[in-house]
């Protein structure tokens, strides 16, 4: 047996690497919740989750007071059972962000242990489809950037042979959005993928109107145009536009993804391993999407998602938003437009514990 003998959680605040703005919010800081689980065979697995500025202490409290004590004495190999045990214990607070983030920190630590015990990297143990996956950039597309900056960022990504860029939309006037997008299209040519993200800022009618205005630009997808709980609105938009609709970063259960897929309200699934509750449910969503012939292009967390996208056959892209460089000793490998999943056993994230301790709060 691999009995859990200790489970600890900590919270570290990471500074944002660059100014990041969209139509509804700014990325204030990354509250990083880490869980370390130690077993009787002297292995320690580390998992994590995050917020973009608020809620971290609530996740930490839930872990320390309610969830981590339930792990002691359990067999760490029973990942599915442990996820369900903790989920059912928090039944009154699911489906929700705080509980999902807490579950994710535990589940990713358990998967780290599983991979360490097997001597295998995550991308192979979770499926092993291929090691290298296409990369697209979001860092050069934030809403506060002017048109010249958007163009420069897109040309830089294109020169690096990356597989596209994402640009934030939601300016007060449609004409401003279109002018920014068209300037980038004119610069990169007709073949280079451009995606857009509205960050849930629009009404159903406005999303349909803007999609019609964006269509001549030739977009790869229209991301989160409406509030995430408006499945019907997304379905109407999907039926009204030729632009693929992308959703998922703000969904917190497998059932929510099922509803989107059954209603043909999403053409791209952007499941976030932290917000869905860990690797265990992430893989279920990815396989559900595969059954509907839909691609998975997860949100953020590129250091972890690179391995998960590599694990499944319908993983299309990894989103380039680096955010762990201040607290890790290695970066993911990027070459010729591809991100390479780490080959070392475990999640493949080389944590810098001194740097994390310097940023510890709570």
From TrEMBL:
The keyword Magnesium applies. SMART domains: MR_MLE. InterPro entries: Enolase-like_C_sf (IPR036849), Enolase-like_N (IPR029017), Enolase_C-like (IPR029065), Mandelate_racemase_C (IPR013342), Mandelate_racemase_N_dom (IPR013341), RHMD-like (IPR046945). Signal peptide: none annotated. Pfam families: MR_MLE_C (PF13378), MR_MLE_N (PF02746). Residues 147-244 form the Mandelate racemase/muconate lactonizing enzyme C-terminal domain. It comes from the Bacteria. This is Mandelate racemase/muconate lactonizing enzyme family protein.
